[in-house]
Amino acid sequence: MTALAMAVSDSLTITRRNLIKVKRVPDLIVFATLSPIMFVLLFRYVFGSAIPVPGGLSYAEFLLPGIFAQTVVFGSTITGASLAEDLQKGLIDRFRSLPMARSAVLVGRTVADLLLNVLTIAVMMITGFVVGWRIHTSVGEAVLGVLLLLAFAYAMSWVMAFVGLLVRTPEVVNNASFIVIFPITFIANTFVPIDNFPSALKTFAEWNPVSAVVQGARELFGNVVPGAPEPTGWALQNPVLYVFIWVAIFLAVFVPLAVRTYRRTAGR
Question: So what's the pLDDT on residue 268?
Fold first, then answer.
């Protein structure tokens, strides 16, 4: 068996192991799906009437792509927390004693979390249809919108995998990532239009990759404001391309960093 075939086989085995863990610990999937449902209902019915969206677009249709993006970004912390937990319990050292590809643990973890994101987005879409969200584009564009969200989620999982290998407890992963993830998901076009932001925050929001994910999803799902002027700034004018540039950067930087850190950290 070639090295590549062994790496793929080992990665699939670890992916299966992580999915079995989700099945045996249903709390993971329950809370992963309840949180976005709560955000949808909270913003739709509590804040929806107080947040006007110019152009006559319903707030539900404006909101849901933002909730999708926020959820997959926050969901990436599961990767880091799970790896930190495996390190804490000594499971990583057991994996290292086996004749398996060194990258398999990380690939298996990130792929399993990607599949979890598929389920989470499906649940949110169903919830969105219930509260009034609709897709107004073709099936192909809608599928591309989902793939855009999943691609960014997968790239963020590798960032969090690197963070999870730097620390030893899941709690530190959650606390450290929250400091970064919270502002990048809220200083964006996630929940409100950015037109009235202070100039510095507006500039940040325009180049924030989360804003591009949201803008790209809105365009691909047909949830843009009718007749709205074109966004200012290249990033929001070309959101899909901008997102995939960030995905490529994250993967190019953090995949080798995470693999190298895995070898060193687990060997301590």
Answer: 47
